[in-house]
Amino acid sequence: MPKTMIEPFRIKSVEPIRMTTRAERERLLEAARLNVFQLRAEDVLIDWLTDSGTGAMSARQWGAIMEGDESYAGARSFFRLEKVIQDITGMDYFVPTHQGRAAEKVLFTAVCKKGDLVPSNCHFDTTRANLEYVGVQALDCVIAEGLEPATLHPFKGNIDLERVEALLRKEGARIPFGMITVTNNTGGGQPVAMANIRAYAALLKKYGKPLVMDVCRFAENAMFIKMRESGYENTSVRAIAQEMFSYADAATMSAKKDGMVNIGGFIVLRSDEWLDEVRNDLIMMEGFPTYGGMAGRDLEALAVGLEEGLDEDYLRYRLRTAEYLGEKLDAAGVGFVKPTGGHAVYIDAKTVLPDMPVAHYPAWALCNALYLEGGIRGVEVGSMMFGRRLDDGTETFHSMELVRLAFPRRMYTQSHFDYAAEVIADVKQKAASIRGVKITKQPKFLRHFTVQCTWA
């Protein structure tokens, strides 16, 4: 077989990209207060801000949309999706929401109280914010290798079991449940081993605590297990995913990732212990339990997308795409989280801007530079996202300064990745001219979305 891996799909519809000049982008970035979130999408050449809801749906999904039942209560589209989710997760109780952060909000409101503590490998931005909003301490317990970008480890998303057990012994009364994110987005899209999930579930059960999984990229995690964990090489990705879910008591999902849709999310529960409270909160925040903030057509598209997201040819191509860009960056001397994750490449900004003080937000500065030089929009996963300004005016900083380039599903071709690699290499050569930023205005929660900056 040829060594070149081709996209396992054909393109049936295209969307034009507006080409911009550097001078235009400089003006546009200034108008956006040096925050790429505030740019208009039409002014971006390659939009790798997020893989959440930004991908291309298939012909089968577009066909399914036409079958959407928009009944307020009891729509057949709900029951079709419920069956698909029950088969994959093995859980009886399915609660739809319009996206992942809504699932988190509903579940945490129903189950958590002020003063609680929830451990995870790493809480991503909305998960942490939704916990902290209700007064819960969100504690990251990823293994040490998960905080070392250059260190090679097949499962850098694993949770530190010894640290969690120490927490359970000391703070067990404060812990309503344990969480784990698959794959670990904060730490570079890194997978979690089945052995680690199994052991974590057993540890929590020993102390009488449920396991809640954040599963927005469960299919990618399952593919990594098939490729890297001994004993699973001949197991189907679907069966691996089903085993992953078998260890959980509940899960939240942003279906905008491995659900292959532009909007949607859900909660699944193994028992009905939390169900009444969850559904009551759902009605207050999202909608009736058989649509939960989603249109019937979107329920139909998700039912198809969850099946397509488990296709092994697609997943092999998906993971190889990130690996391909990583090889290009390696050749250019640009550091990144190794090995590459499934949905993104995370550039280590400290390897590009080693002399920039963290107080000038080097990963944010690198995001701006990528847009200025090549029209590429990524997202900072560093001290702007996970640091905060304290009441006394001082700042806290994150342990890593990463720029995530997250790839929308079935959207970009190899030439886009080759172009991006050239831009990133060029930016590294111009590193001495890249300017940091300082904050002029910020909200209390999730500041990176709307923060305003000026040049430092």
- Percent helix: 25-40%
The CATH class of the largest domain is identified as Alpha Beta
Specify the overall morphology.
globular
Beta fraction: 5-15%
Number of strands: 16
The main β sheet shows up as: 5 strands, mixed
Number of helices: 16
Q: Determine Rg (CA atoms, Å).
A: 21 Å
Q: Low-confidence spans: pLDDT under 50, at least 5 residues?
A: none
| CATH architecture term of the largest domain | 3-Layer(aba) Sandwich
Number of domains: 2
Distance between the termini: 52 Å
Describe the structure.
With 456 residues, this protein is of the alpha/beta class. The chain has 2 domains: 22-51 and 311-455, Aspartate Aminotransferase, domain 1, CATH 3.90.1150; 59-308, Aspartate Aminotransferase, domain 2 (3-Layer(aba) Sandwich). Helices cover 39% and strands 13% of the residues. It has helices at residues 22-31, 59-65, 76-89, 100-111, 125-133, 161-171, 194-206, 218-228, 237-246, 275-285, 296-308, 312-331, 349-352, 362-374, 383-386, 414-429; strands at residues 46-47, 93-97, 117-120, 137-140, 178-181, 211-214, 250-254, 265-269, 344-348, 376-377, 379-381, 388-389, 395-396, 402-406, 437-441, 452-455. It has a 5-stranded mixed beta sheet with strand order 2-8-7-6-5, with helices on both faces. Strands 9-14-11 form a 3-stranded antiparallel beta sheet. A two-stranded parallel sheet has the order 1-10. Helix 2 (59-65) runs antiparallel to helix 11 and helix 3 (76-89) runs parallel beside helix 11 (296-308). The model has no long low-confidence stretch (mean pLDDT 96).
